[in-house]
């Protein structure tokens, strides 16, 4: 992958190649566990924010946390189910099942998201789709779909294919802004959760616009989208940091990103 010599800030001497391999290893551990629980009769609980959670979410995150602690005890961990922070220079960010609503309804478009964040900047990301057997990995300067390079498209706004998880995530002024943008594209689709960002990285769709996301929803996506040639920011064009406001624009190329921001801001 051409990254063996790219060192990361770490007292344990790990290189970026090391942590890429480790991120793949984590995804390899998580995938069979997700498939074990998928389409079974799992009790579904509601968290404080009313989002659903299952034993699968908790089991996968617990497994990945244990593995990270055993290999990189000096790294931080932040996960959707058990929390965490960014107090250490290097932090692993985990979303054990991104798309729990898809998961509990038997839809295979859920994923496991794994990122390594260096001082607030995601430097390695994995989007793994356990039920589909598909995986994207990115480093911000390169991205792969399986073993093949992933590249975004060069489409313009009028022909762009736009995804969002649901129209329900846009409220008030955000809904008006999304309507302006979606009315200017070639077509729009809803659903897919993290899968849409993988499709964008491989050139099948061109825009993903979201609101109401959390840090564990996005950190793994950024290195994949940007590594494939895309641009991913908040709605004001700022880089996505742990303090972002939950709104995201991922675009296949810089020109499309600029056009999308103009529509959202109009």
Automatic annotation (TrEMBL):
The keyword Zinc-finger does not apply. SUPFAM superfamilies: Carbohydrate phosphatase. This is Histidinol-phosphatase. GO terms for biological process: L-histidine biosynthetic process. One of its GO terms (molecular function) is phosphatase activity. The keyword Iron-sulfur does not apply. Pfam families: Inositol_P (PF00459). CDD domains: Bacterial_IMPase_like_1 (cd01641). Its cofactor is Mg(2+). It comes from Methylobacterium bullatum. Belongs to the inositol monophosphatase superfamily. InterPro entries: Inositol_monoP_metal-BS, Inositol_monoP_superfamily, Inositol_monophosphatase-like.
């Amino acid at each position: 992958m051409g990254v063996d010599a790219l060192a990361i800030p770490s007292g344990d001497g790990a290189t970026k190649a090391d942590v890429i391999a480790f991120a793949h290893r984590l995804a390899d551990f998580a995938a069979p566990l997700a498939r074990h629980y998928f389409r079974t009769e799992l009790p579904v609980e509601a968290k404080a924010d009313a989002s659903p959670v299952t034993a699968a979410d908790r089991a996968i995150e617990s497994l990945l946390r244990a593995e990270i602690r055993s290999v990189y005890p000096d790294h931080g961990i932040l996960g959707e189910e058990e929390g965490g922070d960014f107090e250490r220079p290097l932090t692993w960010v985990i979303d054990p099942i991104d798309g729990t609503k898809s998961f509990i309804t038997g839809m295979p478009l859920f994923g496991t998201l794994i990122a390594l964040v260096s001082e607030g900047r995601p430097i390695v990301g994995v989007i793994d789709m356990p039920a589909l057997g598909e995986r994207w990995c990115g480093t911000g300067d390169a991205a792969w779909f399986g073993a093949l390079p992933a590249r975004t498209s060069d489409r313009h706004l009028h022909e762009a294919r736009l995804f969002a998880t649901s129209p329900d995530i846009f409220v008030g002024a955000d809904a008006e802004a999304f309507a302006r943008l979606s009315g200017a594209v070639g077509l729009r689709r809803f659903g897919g959760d993290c899968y849409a960002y993988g499709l964008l990285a491989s050139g099948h769709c061109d825009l993903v616009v979201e609101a109401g996301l959390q840090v564990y929803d996005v950190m793994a996506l950024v290195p994949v989208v940007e590594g494939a040639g895309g641009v991913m920011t908040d709605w004001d064009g700022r880089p996505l940091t742990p303090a972002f406001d939950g709104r995201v624009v991922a675009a296949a190329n810089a020109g499309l990103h600029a056009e999308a921001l103009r529509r959202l801001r109009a």
